[in-house]
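Morning. Coffee machine broken again, so started the prediction first thing and wrote up yesterday's gels while waiting. Chain of 229 residues, entered below exactly as on the submission form.
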Amino acid sequence: MTSNQPSVLIVEDESAQREVLKYNLEAEGFEVVMAENGDEALLLVREENPDLIVLDWMLPNVSGIEVCRRIKADPETRGIPIVMLSARGDEGDRVRGLETGADDYVVKPYSVVELMARLRTQLRRTRPTTMGERLVHDDIVLDSAEHRVFRDGEPLHLGPTEFRLLSTLMEKPGRVWTREQLLDRVWGRDIYVDMRTIDVHVGRLRKALMANGGSNPVRTVRGTGYALG
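Came back before lunch.
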């Protein structure tokens, strides 16, 4: 996955439906990974760590409901929003899907425009910077639309990598990001970067954030990685 584009895993056993979803999601700027059954989906969720999952209820072998339950039961993946697709439109089915952990439930046949809007709504929760949102943590403000950062009202000068690093940390203040997770999010999986390079850029980010005398907001978690606050 590249770092700037939000990623989505499509889990759908009908190839025509997969291709329609892939086409529309890529047109919206998503990176797309596809699975055609539940077992493959569970493997890809751990390997790819997508920002969103579009999950069909009716899958061969492991059902979409069971895939949803397992993803939400795993502390490593439970935070990934799941939008469930189903031809089952009864209220009881909707309730079952949502109670299993789905974050939204869309009945087939659906409007592609509406589905994209629902996915963007979920993305605002998990990766607000990709939607041009302003993030605020204590006295730090990051405006992703204008690509500017302020601390205590004063503008800060950050390089592109430090900006992406800060935006990732600000999406979930307090969360501990491992170096591997930061590498995937900030640099992308297709680029080789030495782990020590991450430490160098964290050092530059700290220096920029403390340029006007503020305290150091980036915490080192020994043996693991970094967190904001």
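The mean pLDDT is 86. Going to sketch it on the whiteboard this afternoon.
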